[in-house]
Amino acid sequence: MPIIEDALNIDPMITQQPSIRDKEVLISAMNYSVKAGGKRLRMLLLLMVADLYGIETRKILPLACGIEYLHTSSLIFDDLPAQDNSDLRRGRPTLHKTTINDDIPETLCEGRAQLAAISLIAMSMSVINDGLIQNGFSAGSITRIFGEISQLMHNLCIGQMMDLRAAHVGITESNGQVEKLDQIAWLKTGKTIEAVLVTPVILSDRRLADQNRDIARLRELARLIGILFQMRDDLLDVEATDTIGKPTALDVKNNTVTYVSVLGVDGTCHRLQQYLSQTLQLVDECWPTDAETVKDVVRHIVSRKF
């Protein structure tokens, strides 16, 4: 969607500081990751919820962009040698593996990637706050938005810590490995989806009691989608094709405990279909009308090739 891609572009002038070479080098790194051609599923889901609650796209676009910046920052960190140690993301070298336009020596690439990720988090806060205020949302609702986002980032870090420990220490609960994987998927993936589903409701005109009722259902929907997303990711890791845009068998290389390593390919596929059925049923409850479009997004998540 052109409106999304245009909105995501980070202009060097946005900082309102003199144009200096070092700033341009950093912003080019931020744009390299943000504009890497992702699926934008999180932004699309946010706009779908906004439409359900009668919020104009232009008014909520700063929130969608801000959360996408946060998501991108997490991917930059996730690819670093201390985390997943991935050389490719979306078919291109990961940020810490490229000089982009040969504008820095290779020895600075990892440091620039770390700084770009942190700067994207700062940019996210500014874009969300300034944009929502300018578009007329109340201070109280914006405060609640930042509460959701801060909890999202904290939970994401907990999920990544659990993932790292699982890879290096293992999952000690031999009878609860799948449940532990569900928890990791919920924290690492589901919580970002939860933010895009819940925050438009907070900005809506609904009564607080109605908001809380709807938010509870959307949180559960996000948890299920997060698990679906991770199960499909784990399957993609063993489906050795060039279409996924990142190294295959990376989970095996990193000794990562996955749904496939615990359940096998067939077991993961079977569980994926079970969770898909539950998720589609919950979508019907959350979207009394026009649910099919949201269902198409969910089906894409479980059938995607990258």
Radius of gyration: 19 Å
Task: Output the helix-strand order.
Answer: HHHHEEHHHHHHH
Helix content: 55-70%
Q: What integer is the average pLDDT? A: 89
Write down the CATH class.
Mainly Alpha
Structural class: mainly alpha
Shape: globular
**How many E strands?**
2
Q: Sheet bearing the most strands, described?
A: 2 strands, antiparallel
Strand order of the largest sheet: 1-2
Low-confidence stretches: none
- CATH hierarchy: architecture: Orthogonal Bundle
Strand share of the residues?
Answer: under 5%
What's the tally of helices?
11
User: Looking at CATH, which topology would you report?
Assistant: Farnesyl Diphosphate Synthase
Pfam families: polyprenyl_synt
GO molecular function, one term: metal ion binding
Keywords: Isoprene biosynthesis, Magnesium, Metal-binding, Transferase
InterPro entries: Isoprenoid_synthase_dom_sf, Polyprenyl_synt, Polyprenyl_synt_CS
